[in-house]
Write a structure and sequence with these properties.
The chain is an all-alpha fold. The protein is 56% helix and 0% strand. InterPro entries: Anti-sigma-28_factor_FlgM_sf, FlgM, FlgM_C.
């Protein structure tokens, strides 16, 4: 694959483009238009979501902001990585 100075792949090395037949395009368009999906959230689901959401802690945010401004805020990359891994595992398990 050859890349020119602009960072774009040279046209001579690109994949061949297949022209779609009018019938194929019409069939695909009508198939997509006839499908419809909907999502509904019950009042019970909304209430449960409201109960499980964590409250915003303005004092903690102010303390972190002051520590950053003073140059005293320490970042713990291991804790961040552990939290990311844990949340990813939780999302994949659910």
């Amino acid at each position: 694959m050859k890349i020119d100075n602009s960072g774009k792949v040279a046209a001579a090395y690109g994949a061949p483009v297949r022209a779609a037949k009018k019938e194929e395009v019409a069939t695909q368009a009508s198939g997509a238009a006839s499908r419809s999906e909907s999502v509904a959230i019950s009042s019970q689901g909304l209430a449960k979501a409201a109960q499980t959401s964590e409250a915003f802690d303005a004092d903690k945010v102010a303390a972190i902001k002051a520590a950053i401004a003073a140059g005293e805020f320490k970042i713990n990359p291991e804790a961040i990585a552990d939290s990311l891994i844990a949340s990813t595992r939780e999302l994949l398990a659910g």
